[in-house]
């Protein structure tokens, strides 16, 4: 692998459980050291290297600070590359997705900001539970299918949470 592991950039062992505050502090320290402005007087090669290091650091940070992206990254480190789009063969989860989407549409149609806040809290609880389940099984080869299934659920809830934040902003205006 040509680029260093995202975890190695931050002097961390690959793990799903991370101290995100500590990660942010370390990111800021490293970002200052490789910021392209520090290399304004350097030759073109040094400037390019600084820019590449800065871009790698930003990509690593964005991946590690987001639980579903971190989960996908860990699975990619430990096994075959995962397809970005995949058919989910999980009827219970598909039903849950449909119900959550319908509930969100109803909240949007009703301009129900209090309902949106309640929905957001429910998503947070569900996300925390998925994160915990993933943390328990991600590095067990015998549970890889389960870890992949949980990661896909995490991605769905993350996308839904993003939509909820957008709705919340619209209703706040």
Task: Provide structural commentary.
This protein is 73% helix and 0% strand. By secondary structure, it is an all-alpha fold. It has two domains: 60 residues, DnaJ domain (Helix Hairpins), CATH 1.10.287; 82 residues, Up-down Bundle (Monooxygenase). Helix 4 runs antiparallel to helix 7.
Key descriptive features of the protein:
173 residues, mainly alpha, Monooxygenase, 7 helices, chaperone, Co-chaperone protein HscB homolog, HscB_C_sf
Quick take:
The chain has 173 residues and is mostly helical. The protein has helices spanning 6-9, 20-34, 44-65, 67-78, 91-110, 113-137, 144-172. The chain has two domains: 6-65, Orthogonal Bundle (Helix Hairpins); 91-172, Monooxygenase (Up-down Bundle).
How does CATH name the architecture of the largest domain?
Up-down Bundle
CATH class of the largest domain: Mainly Alpha
Structural class: mainly alpha
Order of helices and strands: HHHHHHH
SSE blueprint and pairings:
Blueprint: H1 6-9, H2 20-34, H3 44-65, H4 67-78, H5 91-110, H6 113-137, H7 144-172
């Amino acid at each position: 692998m040509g680029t260093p592991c995202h975890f190695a950039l931050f002097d961390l062992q690959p793990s799903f459980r991370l101290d995100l505050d500590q990660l942010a502090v370390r990111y800021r320290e490293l970002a200052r050291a490789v910021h392209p402005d520090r290399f304004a007087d350097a030759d073109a090669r040094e400037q390019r290297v600084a820019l590449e290091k800065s871009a790698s650091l930003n990509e690593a940070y964005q991946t590690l600070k987001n639980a579903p992206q971190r989960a996908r990254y860990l699975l990619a480190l430990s096994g075959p590359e995962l397809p970005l789009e995949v058919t989910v063969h999980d009827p219970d989860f598909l039903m849950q997705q449909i119900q959550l989407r319908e509930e969100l549409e109803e909240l949007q149609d009703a301009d129900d900001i209090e309902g949106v806040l309640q929905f957001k809290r429910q998503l947070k609880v569900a996300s925390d539970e998925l994160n915990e389940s993933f943390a328990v099984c991600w590095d067990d080869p015998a549970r890889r299918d389960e870890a992949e299934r949980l990661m896909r659920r995490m991605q769905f809830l993350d996308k839904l949470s993003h939509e909820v934040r957008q709705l919340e902003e619209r209703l706040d205006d």
